[in-house]
Design goal:
Largest sheet: none
Number of strands: 0
Distance between the termini: 27 Å
Shape: flat
Helix content: over 70%
Order of helices and strands: HHHHHH
Radius of gyration: 17 Å
Length: 126
């Protein structure tokens, strides 16, 4: 069956989309945390009516769309581990926005994640 007409992403473009996906995902988590602090009730309606939460959900939606686009042409075994970079961004943003502590264990974990993503990226070079 012939390939349908349309735009296809290169390997690098797919990787860039997933990295952008991690940034949107991390921003979504920070905004959701901000919205969660504002909640006066844990009811589903309150969670759907809090603007910060809706903004966070929306960013998650954008992140998901970017992931779908990247996975369409990319390799799941290469792209999916890159999503772990979200943990790095969330830690850094939590430190900046919420003044959360970053200790040696968190730094070690971030280092392991970054090294792991680097190893996976290098091991799949063509």
């Amino acid at each position: 069956m012939p390939e349908p007409e349309g735009f296809h992403f290169t390997r690098r473009q797919s990787i860039a989309l997933v990295i952008l996906c991690t940034v949107f995902g991390a921003a979504a988590q920070i905004i959701i945390k901000h919205g969660a602090v504002q909640l006066t009730s844990a009811s589903p309606l309150a969670m759907l009516m809090t603007p910060a939460l809706v903004g966070g959900y929306s960013l998650y939606g954008i992140s998901t769309v970017l992931l779908v686009l990247a996975l369409r042409d990319g390799e799941l075994s290469l792209l999916y581990p890159i999503i772990s970079l979200t943990y790095v961004w969330v830690t850094l943003l939590s430190f900046y926005f919420f003044k959360e502590t970053v200790n040696i264990y968190k730094l070690a974990g971030i280092t392991v994640v970054v090294l792991g993503v680097s190893v996976i990226g290098r091991s799949d070079k063509r």
